[in-house]
Amino acid sequence: MNRADTLGSLWQAWAAQGEALTAKQWATPTRLPPWDVRALFAHASAWPRWLAYIVTQERETPPTHPTAAALLLDFNAPDGLATRMRQSTADKAVDDGRKHTTEQMIAACAEVGPQALDEARALGDVVVDYLGLARLRLDEVLSIGILEATVHLLDLQRALGVRPSAPPGGLALTASVLTAMADPVDLIEAATGRTGAEVFPVLR
Questions:
Q1: Are 151 and 160 in contact (CB under 8 A)?
Q2: Model's pTM, two decimal places?
């Protein structure tokens, strides 16, 4: 399955889960305080709208980062963007959850996302501006979307107390990106029981 199809399957899973949520479940706390399910869904449903914008941002210049893993490593460095913006990102999701209706958030996954993916398929693997933060090949942008949708789908399912279940393609690609972010020697030696090196987390 290609990356656009993988991301599409994840957004279908999000939309289906959203349709099934009760009022009580929307207010359920998650393992990412202060987010409840509504805030988590608001954060995840922003990504389809971002992609709808990103596919209009083709560039003729080379990528600033070769892979999604390389960009995410920069973002998650001690002084990186993700580290510096952690609180503002958390606050924005709470605000967006109050601002958007549940129907709007579900529609982002069920309608906006698939349309953006059609645009991505038509473009091919061009270089795009990634929200003014970097330039990436479009397939690598989709990899970040897959990781976000997969990790947060597991957050959602854990909050709801249901057995974790994500599309296999999403799990496989997310695992490969996270593995690529780890130091390869530390990862190999820790995975084979040869050292107690603290390899993870590589992303928060």
A1: no
A2: 0.95
